[in-house]
Amino acid sequence: MTALLNIKALNAYYGQVQALHGLEFTLDEGSVTALLGANGAGKTTTLRAICNMVRTSGAIEFDGAPLSSRSTENIVRLGIAHVPQGRGTFTTMTVEENLELGAITRRRAGVASDIERMYAHFPVLKQRHTQQAGTLSGGEQQMLAVARALMLRPRLMLLDEPSFGLAPLIVRDLFKILGKINREDKVTILVVEQNAQLALEIADHAYVIETGRIVMSGKANEIANNEDVRKSYLGY
Amino acid sequence: MELLTNQILAGIATGAIYACMALAVVMIYQAIDHLNFAQGEMAMFSTFISWQLMQWGVPYWGAFLLTLVLSFIGGILIERLLFKPLAKAPILTHVAGFIALYAIINSSAGLIWDFTIKQYPTPFGSAPFFGSQLISTHQAGMIGVTVLLLIALYVFFRFTRMGLAMRAAASVPESARLVGINTSWMIALGWGMAAAIGSIAGMMIAPVVFLEPNMMGGVLIYGFAAAVLGGLTSPFGAVVGGFLVGIIENLAGTYIPNVGNELKLPIALALIIVVLVVKPAGLFGRPIVKRV
Hints:
Strand content of chain A: 25-35%
Oligomer: heterodimer
Shape of chain B: globular
CATH class of chain A: Alpha Beta
Number of helices of chain B: 11
CATH superfamily of chain A: P-loop containing nucleotide triphosphate hydrolases
Structural class of chain B: mainly alpha
Strand order of the largest sheet of chain A: 6-7-8-3-9-10
Largest sheet of chain B: 2 strands, antiparallel
Shape of chain A: globular
Number of strands of chain B: 2
Largest interface: A-B, 26 and 18 residues
Helix content of chain B: over 70%
Number of domains of chain B: 1
Distance between the termini of chain A: 32 Å
Order of helices and strands of chain A: EEEHEEHEHHHHEHEHEEHH
Number of domains of chain A: 1
């Protein structure tokens, strides 16, 4: 397998505060990778750094091309879809308009059929397609956010705490669909989660991050079975 | 009764112009969260350009369309050169920028075309409309042009991908960037469109108020009143507000003793204050909640 994303010596800053300290990791094409860690460890910052939404230094390469000189919208155009924390729903627009916006950088051909595909993945979105997205429940909005990201036909999907604020049953469904999307559409996934157990179930590989540094990496099942790691970093 | 109908119709006609100005103001407000004090001057300058084109022998509608295009480009240039560098600046810097723009455009127009009042032609004539004494053909034309503009804008924002992208960029800029929209250019496009809409307002009202560098001062105040009344976050509200302000202005001038023409402007200002006190979001706007 080749590395789709390659991060080397990545630092990130919020003003004077340094949030990432020499972060290094790679994502294999077609894999699901979990980035785990406690609150404030730098998980969200890592995703924001990939999309150039924070000030960074170091190297981020996507498919061999450096990302750091590109603007957020140009990084997205390379096929990196980011499902942000809080979902970033266009609340005043309809569900269908949200999906169309996901494909706004693509040519029009194929957009309508992709919307139908999303409705097949998430039937509840079809029922609500003319509703204002802000009226959806939290779980439905999370599905919409994932569907909107998929409308880009991304090569890499970044998911920031997809389980946040959702009922356990809904989270299970969502992760099942994410696994399916990874297998069927060959989308590489990087998922940031506090719910480590769940993320490790669908992940091939995992990194544990603490105060802006990678402290542990390995196959997902190894990390899940490592008693010490579980106790010190994952808290279950 | 005829006086009442007459005043309401005249109110709708000038209201159409206020609606255009309010729409232009709301477009820029949606894009950058600030009121463009120079919107009226931009419209005035556009109107002068169209007048100059006609002086050079361009027929009315040719000059009209050419002015729309030039105003659109001018609006984009103003955003790129003046306001893009200010994007992260504090609000007072913006206010200073708007006032500078106001002064520069106003004086430039005076310098180029001097301050004497000029006649401005109307393509509709000023005969009674369909033989009715209630409304003139020019007034009917103003309403017609505004309605056409509104339909065009509605179709653009509702049914085109570019319109969808512009709405997305205005409502949640960060998410818009995350779907690959260049929000900075969307703001520039918003400026271009606002300038073009304002130029229509200027060219339509110029036969009534006559052409001179200060012609849009009062009109812009009414436009602000309309935008505030309808809600600064709602283009639809701005249009409704425009027509309402036009009607209120005319009825107050006619029926409230001692108001007359001179005291009409304070009515617009009073309206702004009343709306801001009683219902700050306006008739159709949504209240803006900010996390702190």
